[in-house]
Design a protein that fits this description.
Blueprint: E1 5-16, E2 19-29, H1 41-53, E3 64-67
Length: 68
């Protein structure tokens, strides 16, 4: 059975050429929950920056990218 995610935090919304991509950090899935305050801002900031740098590599229909 595939793991499903139930909740996440919006880190950033990236908009480029009229297209938006929401960048999220997953809080809980069907198999685990992230303890509060565990993920360092340097990690989430780095993830958001990587998504932004690679924006053009995502399919046009991609609306959300989430880090587990």
């Amino acid at each position: 059975m595939a793991v499903q995610y139930f909740s996440s935090q919006l880190l950033k919304t990236i908009t480029e050429d009229g297209r938006s991509l929401a960048v999220h950090l997953v809080d809980s899935t069907s198999t685990w929950a992230r303890p509060a305050g565990v993920t360092a801002s340097s990690v989430t900031d780095g993830f958001a920056a990587t998504v932004e740098q690679n924006f053009d590599k995502f399919q046009p229909e991609t609306a959300t990218v989430a880090m587990k």
